[in-house]
Specification:
The complex is a heterodimer of chains A (687) and B (225).
Chain A (H helix, E strand, L loop, with lengths): L3 E5 H11 L4 E4 L7 H7 L1 H4 L8 E4 L3 H13 L3 E7 H17 L5 E8 L13 H7 L3 E2 L4 H18 L3 E6 H4 L2 E5 L22 H23 L5 E4 L14 H7 L4 E6 L2 H15 L7 E6 L1 E3 L3 H8 L4 E5 L5 H10 L10 E3 L14 H11 L4 H4 L17 H16 L12 H16 L4 E4 L18 E2 L4 H9 L11 E6 H17 L4 E7 L28 H7 L3 E5 L5 H14 L2 E7 L3 H7 L6 E4 L14 H5 L5 E4 L4 E4 L9 H5 L5 E4 L1 H4 L4
Parallel strand pairs in A: 2-3, 2-4, 4-5, 5-7, 6-7, 10-11, 10-13, 13-14, 15-16, 15-17, 17-18, 18-20, 19-20
Antiparallel strand pairs in A: 1-8, 6-12, 9-11, 21-24, 22-23
Chain B lengths: L1 H4 L10 E8 L4 H14 L3 E5 L10 E9 L13 E6 L2 H11 E10 L6 H4 L8 H11 L2 E5 L1 H8 L5 H11 L7 H11 L2 H27 L7
Parallel strand pairs in B: 1-4, 4-5, 5-6
Antiparallel strand pairs in B: 1-3, 2-3
Helix pairs in contact in B: 2-7, 2-8, 3-5, 6-7, 6-9, 7-9, 8-9
Classes of the chains: A alpha/beta (687), B alpha/beta (225).
């Protein structure tokens, strides 16, 4: 083992793939998975010990990424594909056919990062069900170290089994950081070659035979999971998650015999269980006698014998896992199976209401569940059920602590919220202002459909609450295609669909063809900010001069749209808001399919690229008429750019230069013409 | 302070829990990464809990930094268990103090306010900063407020506020590190052209923390709950 460094879970996954000799990696950005490919793209400079030839790409979408990576595996290479939970839905069609044909000698690890209690997603989904659906091995690491080790092992297992192997992460693991010991990488040993005799065909006459073959592999794979060092049992609140290969100690084996309550904890849940059990141990040492934790990180095919062995003799089991009761269902099935020979025992978890059935969990949730199950007094674990500090933990019922907790709750409720909003200088602000204005001019109760991305914030006040629908990527245009043909049934409202530039290539092309084919009345606005902004500025096919590869062909969205026979205009919504409104309004009146590309680079991307201008907006105090203007503080209240402020004392607007990128939208739109663009030196005299 | 907290509770080592909080874009992620790397180099087991993406768009952000000498830690600080809140912005410092703090929690915060969008739009009001600090003083075991933006400007860039805060937290004794530990990590973290600004910010913050620590030890601001 080499150096121990702090790595983000996603960096650890990338490192693990490299240590196992990966040479083909693909993905589509989506939090919390984006940094896996981001890291792999720079692996040669980041980790010189992995400087072998690789192909790493941001693909146009997840299914293309998976198909490309699988094809690399068909030639004998080791490949990785990474995505968020929504992404594996996009891949589902391929995943449930490539499992039948197998990989023809190479290896493919499918990394899926779920987002429990979504921090940055449009759904809450448990990707582990895809392992069951496609009958593929599933690993669920609990620490950054294990994320690295499990990814490397997944490539070995994929190659030996001939099947893709799924590694499931969650936001807190992917975006958290923990210590990782770097191993010695094994460079790729093969030159890619597609054996001319190989046939990977999902033809009906071989499907049943391949299905039987896949079913036949399950037993062998289950035995692999049963024996995996990724799973570990620890009795009496000892350390549970010391990384791969925590051995069951002799003491633990002895104690195991008297285990009354077994906590079965999957993935990161094992760390939360560990912390909660230790907390119980501190407050109620007697309660932890007979309390054991079975950590599961090699999850599918379900290691039923391992679990049954630890449940034999127990009185109850608590299942701790993220999102859905995937493991809990398996435990219930085990108990219902006479062959497992288990006595009736109580199962606590999501179904029993002891663990939250939806949303993210943490140590506190496990502590509350344990306290209920073990019938421990509330007083000693604190009135509010929160973790106790040592300082206030010694007393009995602590009324002081109770009053203190109440005070915190009251103060919290009184604080002004900090809603997420468009960044300062964000071009989406201008785009949605134009959409709002054009819809108002049109006056027919227009509907705006959209999807995820930064522009999803148009559902909120800084996007003038314009967005009416937000589902999966590209859904806004498909929905608009449907709404746009309802005129014949009496529908009278105009429809604007919005999608980002990266989303356009990912998921909008079939829907745009459909809208044209069906002669729908749709104005499709492509919010082209030159990057995949939300996930960290990844390139896409239309990115002008990708910094990763300036030679790469740029696919222009307008050429694609015009190629489909759709009338298409391009406008800068920030530089020319009035023209943008006019183009939108005219398109709405004309009927049929129209594309309006609102093109202006993301303000944060420009700043990052160092191409932002030096000028800033400033208020000419003599021209600002404050409340008397009748503009209702247009720049701060309506446009609501974080740089536009209002000074209560002077009754005039001002601009905070730290929050201005000089885009000029407020300058363009101020009804009194009180804003100008000036260089920062002049600005010092402003306000 | 943190040295005393390590390995004290009931004889078993309990993690020290520190939160860097502020507004999306203020640099809490880099601050937590730098502190975490320095703690690991100093021999601690470390976990950093972070979220990127949507929440970074002007929303409240918090990076959890947990460390001790022992087993791997989960990345989230349970409610009531934050030992220290390091605020890049006073409203967010109070928010996190309410969410994750207990009577034992201490606060170090920059006083420069960042109004939420709702305040700019007139749908909510931002309390006086002094009111926020008074409330923190009622809820926390100590509060150390200072103008972090001023130090960041003196270092050469307001964006170096995050390094000022890491430096100040270390100087105050919330992180068992030296300023040299931080500077070493900064050299590995930042591009050469950004190093001198960030190093100055760490040093200015550290000096501020050291002098505030002397004040705390004299009992100037400490208030036992």
């Amino acid at each position: 083992m080499g150096e121990r460094i702090l790595l983000m879970g996603n960096e650890a996954i990338a490192r693990g793939a490299l240590e196992a000799g990966v040479s083909f990696c693909a993905g589509y950005p989506g939090n919390p998975s984006s940094e896996i490919i981001d890291t792999l793209l720079k692996h040669k400079t980041l980790w010189p010990d992995t400087a072998w030839p690789t192909h790493v790409e941001w693909s146009v979408n997840e299914i293309v990424a998976m198909e490309a990576a699988a094809a690399a595996a068909f030639t004998g290479l080791r490949a990785l594909v990474a995505m968020k939970q929504n992404g594996i839905n996009v891949c589902a069609d391929f995943l449930t056919t490539v499992n039948l044909t197998g990989l023809a000698g190479g290896a493919l690890v499918v990394v899926v990062c779920d987002d429990p209690g979504p921090l940055t997603s449009s759904n809450e989904e448990d990707s582990r069900y895809y392992a069951r659906l496609a009958m593929l091995p599933l690993l669920e690491p609990s620490t950054a170290q294990e994320a690295k080790d499990a990814t490397a092992y997944a490539l070995d297992l994929s190659e030996s089994s001939g099947l893709p192997v799924i590694v499931r992460s969650v936001s807190r693991l992917s975006h958290g950081r923990g210590p990782v010991s770097l191993g010695v990488p094994s460079p790729p040993s093969r030159t890619p070659r597609f054996d001319p005799a190989t046939r990977l065909l999902g033809l009906p006459h071989v499907v049943t035979r391949n299905h039987e073959r896949l079913l036949g592999l399950q037993e062998e794979l289950r035995l692999e999971m049963e024996a995996s060092p990724l799973n570990a049992f620890v009795a009496n609140a000892a350390e549970v998650a010391g990384g791969v290969g925590v051995a069951t100690t002799a003491d633990a084996v002895l104690a195991e015999k008297s285990t009354r309550l077994v906590v079965v904890a999957a993935g990161l849940g094992a760390l939360y269980a560990d912390e909660a059990v230790k907390e119980i141990g501190r407050l109620h040492p007697e309660a932890t006698t007979g309390l054991g934790v079975l950590k599961l990180s090699a999850v599918w095919p379900f290691p039923r014998n391992l679990v049954a062995g630890h449940l034999a003799g127990a009185e109850a089991v608590l299942v701790v896992e993220q999102v859905e009761p995937f493991v809990e269902e398996q435990v219930l099935m085990l108990l219902g199976d006479a062959e497992a020979g288990l006595p009736p025992l109580k199962v606590y978890g999501k179904a029993s209401g002891h663990m939250p059935a939806a949303g993210e969990i943490d140590s506190h949730d496990v502590l509350v569940a344990l306290r209920r199950i073990l019938a421990l007094s509330e007083g000693n674990v604190s009135a509010k059920g929160s973790f106790l500090s040592a300082e206030s933990g010694s007393g009995a019922v602590d009324t002081h602590a109770e009053a203190d907790a109440l005070r915190r709750t009251q103060v919290l409720e009184g604080l002004p919220p900090r809603d997420i909003s468009f960044c300062f200088g964000c071009p989406h602000r201008a785009s949605f202002y134009a959409i709002k204005a054009a819809m108002a001019l049109d006056g027919r109760e227009g509907v705006v459909t959209g999807d995820i991305g930064c522009y999803g914030l148009a559902a909120g006040p800084t996007g003038f609450s314009q967005l009416a629908t937000l589902h999966c990527m590209g859904a806004g245009l498909g929905e608009a295609s449907g709404l746009g043909v309802l005129g014949q049934l009496g529908f009278t409202q105009p429809v604007v669909a919005v999608a980002g530039d990266s989303t356009f290539f990912h998921a909008c092309l079939p829907a745009l063809v459909n809208a044209r084919w069906q002669k729908a009345d749709v104005v499709f606005v492509i919010l082209d900010n030159s990057t995949t902004a939300m996930t960290g500025f990844q390139p896409h096919p239309g990115t002008p001069c990708s910094p990763l590869d300036p030679e790469k062909t740029v696919v222009l969205p307008e050429e694609v749209c015009r190629g489909m026979g759709v009338e298409t205009v391009v406008v800068d919504p920030v530089a020319d808001p009035r023209e943008t409104v006019r183009l939108l309004y005219e398109s709405l009146q004309a009927g049929g399919v129209h594309v309006v590309i609102m093109r202006r680079a993301c303000a944060q991307y420009e700043k990052k690229a160092g191409s932002a201008g030096r000028r800033k907006a400033m208020v000419v105090v003599e021209k600002c008429r404050g409340e008397e203007c009748g503009c209702d503080r247009f720049c701060s209240r309506i446009i609501a750019c974080p740089g536009n402020r209002f000074d209560q004392e002077t009754g005039r607007a001002y601009v905070d230069p730290d929050y201005c990128n000089g885009c000029g939208l407020c300058v363009e739109l101020c009804p009194s013409g009180a804003l100008v663009l000036a260089d920062p030196h002049t600005l010092k005299e402003g306000r | 302070m943190s040295e005393e907290r390590v390995s004290t509770r009931n004889g078993e080592e309990v993690p020290v829990n520190l939160v860097f909080t502020g507004v999306g874009g203020q640099g809490n992620v880099i601050a937590a990464k730098l502190a975490g790397s320095a703690l690991l180099a100093a021999g601690f087991e470390v976990a950093v809990g972070d979220v990127f993406g949507l929440s970074q768009r002007g929303g409240s952000v918090a990076s959890h930094v947990r460390f001790h000498r022992g087993a791997p830690l989960p990345p989230l600080i349970p409610p009531g268990r934050a030992d220290f809140v390091v605020g890049f912005e006073p409203l967010e410092a109070l928010r996190v103090l309410c969410q994750l703090g207990g009577p034992h929690t201490g606060v170090l915060t920059s006083t420069g306010d960042v109004p939420p969008t709702g305040v700019l739009m007139g749908t909510s009001t931002y309390p006086e900063v002094q009111q926020l600090l008074d409330e923190m003083a009622r809820l926390a075991t100590f509060v150390v407020p200072f103008d972090g933006l001023d130090l960041a400007r003196r270092a050469g860039n307001v964006q170096a506020l995050n390094m000022v805060m890491v430096g100040a937290a270390t100087g105050l004794g919330l992180l068992p590190l030296t300023v040299e530990d931080l500077v070493r990590e900064a050299e590995a973290t930042f591009a050469p052209k950004l190093r001198s600004v960030n190093q100055s910010a760490l040093e200015l913050g550290f000096e501020l923390g050291v002098s505030e620590r002397a004040g705390l030890e004299r009992g100037d601001k400490e208030r036992k709950v």
